[in-house]
């Protein structure tokens, strides 16, 4: 069974399995890198826009997964650098802050797919290896509305450096309500 999986991945990856992963969430980046290496990719990682641009210029990858919001800027700049070095790169955009305008811009710059965080390795792999013209499958178990809300609150909380008062202000929510939400487990 394993040999057929390896053969299938080589069919999709072709002779150049180079993959550039750009994300400032270091634990997520390392997990995704290991998962993609196990699927046959030759992975390079970058934790910033500057590092991503430098690696894209030095060795333009065949595949790329780029987070839109990075600590030192916008992932769209990395996509532009990749496109200047190589036109045939399959770029996937990852973001926890999705909206239509950034999706359109990413597609105009050449992204082939746009995934919301938290995306797992299977979602990323499917998007990278999807043949042009194929439509993505509808997820079997999409996140519930409660889970999406909880994920958004968690992202804003982290963005505010775990400051409850600032998070509550940005979410236009009472501080005590936010504290109760943060004390609970994540919904399914």
UniProtKB/TrEMBL annotation:
Domain of life: Bacteria
Ranges for domain Response regulatory: 18-132
PROSITE patterns per the UniProt record, alphabetical: RESPONSE_REGULATORY
Keywords, alphabetical: DNA-binding, Phosphoprotein, Transcription, Transcription regulation, Two-component regulatory system
InterPro entries, per the entry: ActR_PrrA_rreg, Bact_response_regulator, CheY-like_superfamily, Sig_transdc_resp-reg_receiver
Signal peptide residues on this chain, from the entry's feature table: none
Gene3D superfamilies xrefs: 3.40.50.2300, Homeodomain-like
4-aspartylphosphate: residues carrying this PTM: 67
Coiled coil: none
Cross-referenced SMART domains: REC (SM00448)
Protein name according to UniProt: ActR/PrrA/RegA family redox response regulator transcription factor
Organism encoding this protein: Rhizobium lemnae
Organism lineage: Bacteria, Pseudomonadati, Pseudomonadota, Alphaproteobacteria, Hyphomicrobiales
């Amino acid at each position: 069974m394993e040999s057929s999986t390896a053969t299938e991945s080589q069919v999709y990856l072709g002779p150049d399995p180079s993959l550039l992963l750009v994300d400032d969430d270091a634990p997520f980046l390392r997990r995704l890198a290991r998962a993609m290496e196990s699927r046959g990719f030759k992975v390079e990682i970058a934790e910033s826009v500057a590092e991503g641009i430098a690696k894209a210029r030095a060795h333009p990858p065949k595949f790329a997964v780029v987070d839109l919001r990075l600590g030192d800027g916008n992932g769209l700049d990395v996509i532009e650098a990749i496109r200047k070095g190589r036109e045939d790169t399959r770029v996937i955009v990852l973001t926890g802050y999705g909206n239509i305008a950034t999706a359109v811009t990413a597609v105009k710059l050449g992204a082939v797919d746009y995934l919301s965080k938290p995306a797992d390795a299977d979602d990323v792999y499917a998007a990278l290896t999807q043949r042009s013209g194929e439509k993505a499958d509808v997820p079997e178990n999409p996140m519930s509305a409660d889970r999406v809300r909880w994920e958004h609150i968690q992202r804003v909380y982290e963005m505010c450096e775990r400051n409850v008062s600032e998070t509550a202000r940005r979410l236009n929510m009472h501080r005590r309500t936010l504290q109760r939400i943060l004390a609970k487990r994540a919904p399914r």
